[in-house]
Amino acid sequence: MTLPEEFTTYTRALMGEERFARFLGALDEPAPVSIRVNPFKAEATPETGADRVVWCRGGYYLDSRPAFTFDPLLHAGAYYVQEASSMFIDHVVRQFVHVPVTALDLCAAPGRQDDVSACRPARGEPSLQQRASSETGADPGPRTS
Question: Is this structure's pTM higher than 0.70?
């Protein structure tokens, strides 16, 4: 990968030689592949080659990138392809949100971070999906608390 000279000069000065060398090495490595299981639609976990994302229940690293577009479970919403760092919101919500809240997702990106909040009900409270289904009479699916 060829980086702009200004960026290289600035970043090398900012990081120092050792960190900058590790940074360049990381750019040459394949990107990790991670998914997050949708607890409203699936309780399954990946069959093989999946390590847990420690800060997100339902988050998994895969050994390789499958052809996601051919998987009907992806299209059914059973899981989402999501960068593991974007799953950190699950940890934050579990640590700090203990009562029902109204939240506005200002990320303006289709990263599926917004439904992590819906998956985490406050202690003793029904999830957003369970509240909605009780109003409509629909089956609420599996409980996620």
Answer: no
